[in-house]
Design goal:
Elements: H1 2-15, E1 22-34, E2 39-44, E3 50-55, H2 58-63, E4 69-77, E5 80-88, H3 91-111, E6 127-129, E7 135-137, E8 145-151, H4 161-177, E9 183-189, H5 197-207, E10 214-217, H6 221-231, E11 235-238, E12 242-245, E13 248-252, E14 258-263, H7 269-280
Amino acid sequence: MQKRSYLTLIGALLSLGQGLSWAAPVEGEIVSVDRDALQVVLRVGGADRKELAASVGRGDAVILEPGEAVRGDLVSFGEGYRLQTVWPNDPVIRGTIARFGDQLHKDTLQRGSKVFRGVGEYIPRFALYDTDGSLFLSESLKGSYAVINFVFSRCANPQMCPAATARMVELQQMAKEAGLDDFKQVSITLDPAYDTPGIWTAYADDKGIDTSTFHLLGGPVQIVEDLKQQMGVLAEPDEEEIIRHTMSTALVDPTGKIIYRIPGSMWSPAAFLKQVEKDKGLGTKD
């Protein structure tokens, strides 16, 4: 009944034609993508399916593919449509993320006052969406050192997320120059309702992030909330800053154990590389 009502609503809105402004959640299939024009053709509806052209953000234009199932918000304005807040809609991936999320939430509740994982403990298991909309599992970090923090794309405080991301980009370059092929980086969004894979893709392009080893992750709100608690980050909505939050950057060894942590955003990228060298037994004597 809920699905039928949803499709009936979309059909009714589309039948109104262009010229009337409205916004509604939508599920559909990408028919084609014009990456230069930042436009897709989207197939929506039930038995009486319709195809419509909609503009998209530049990040979505990069990662969306014909035949891909998506969900998002369809906005009508003037003489056209815009598809925004776009998420993949693959049922297998959604089910995997939900299953991991349920396990993570149970673990958060069971840990109670000991929810924070300090140095010497292992990071929790989780599943989220990667920059390209693919499934990212925490298990994929096994076998590599990983630096993990929390930021969000709309953060405008130069001393917070922008500063942390700049250091993460510098750290990525330093790791490449050092020839570390077992080194990864992860930034998890503090703004999961906004930071979709497309938003993160545009952010990565703006910041010069190589997403092959630096993963920008997002997904369900509850999963992010549980990860924040377990990794020791506090955040709350704020009228001026969108989100007011603390910062913490953790280094995880190839087994998934937290071996180093620095609070705040004004840390030295070299400090993390020294910790990796120390853990590998490569550190030089003073």
